[in-house]
């Protein structure tokens, strides 16, 4: 699939699934904006892509912070002129925390990263996409949205991904 001339923002793009998504988009010719809270790791990943001839840059953002999301989207548009593809991939697990163990603070953090951040990113980029004639928002969910996994993902992960799946459908 060709992504020539397209600018792709990938949250959590420095490693894991985000890095794999970036690799596929780069293979199709996309310019990469790798967003991660770990700027040093994102810089290393972007440098690796650049060494392969891919236009790529790292952007620091705590996706749970709406001000960071707004700032970072502005930086991407300033640098590349547009955003054509948004991949909301960043996620946070709770790892073996039951309902009574998780606490409100951790619950809020998981929901902020896994559900509210994709909403904030979409609110920032969709108007720019519309003005440019179109674009695509991809929200990475999980089977934990429909299949509870009490031993690995914990009490907040599945519900946050179920909310993201419902948001995507709407």
Keywords:
alpha/beta, five-stranded parallel beta sheet
Q: What's the count of strands? A: 5
Strand order of the largest sheet: 3-2-1-4-5
Percentage of β-strand residues:
5-15%
State the helix count: 5
Tell me the Rg in angstroms.
Answer: 16 Å
Mean pLDDT reading: 92
Q: How does the major sheet shape up?
A: 5 strands, parallel
Derived from helix and strand composition plus strand pairing, the structural class reads alpha/beta
Helix fraction by DSSP (H/I, runs of at least 4): 40-55%
Q: Which regions have little confidence, pLDDT < 50, spanning 5+ residues?
A: none
N to C succession of SSEs? EHEHEHEHEH
Give your account of this protein's structure.
- Strands 3-2-1-4-5 form a 5-stranded parallel sheet, sandwiched between helices.
- It is 52% helix and 14% strand.
- Helix 3 runs parallel beside helix 4 (99-131) and helix 4 (99-131) packs parallel to helix 5 (154-169).
- It is α/β, with parallel strands linked by helices and 170 residues long.
- It has 5 helices and 5 strands.
- The chain has helices at 16-27, 39-51, 66-80, 99-131, 154-169, and strands at residues 7-11, 31-36, 56-60, 85-88, 136-139.
């Amino acid at each position: 699939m060709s992504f020539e001339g397209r600018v792709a923002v990938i949250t959590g793009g420095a490693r894991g699934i985000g890095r794999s998504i970036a690799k596929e988009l780069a293979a199709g010719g996309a310019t990469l904006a790798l967003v991660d809270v770990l700027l040093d790791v994102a810089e290393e990943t972007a440098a690796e892509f650049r060494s392969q001839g891919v236009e790529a840059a790292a952007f620091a953002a705590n996706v749970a912070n709406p001000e960071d999301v707004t700032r970072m989207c502005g930086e991407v548009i300033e640098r590349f002129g547009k955003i054509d593809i948004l991949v909301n991939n960043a996620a946070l697990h709770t790892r073996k925390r039951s309902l009574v163990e998780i606490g409100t603070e951790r619950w809020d953090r998981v929901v902020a990263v896994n559900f509210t951040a994709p909403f904030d990113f979409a609110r920032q980029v969709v108007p720019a996409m519309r003005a440019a004639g179109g674009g695509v928002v991809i929200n990475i969910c999980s089977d934990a949205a429909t299949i509870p996994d009490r031993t690995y993902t914990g009490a907040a992960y599945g519900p946050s991904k179920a909310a993201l799946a419902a948001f995507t459908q709407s």
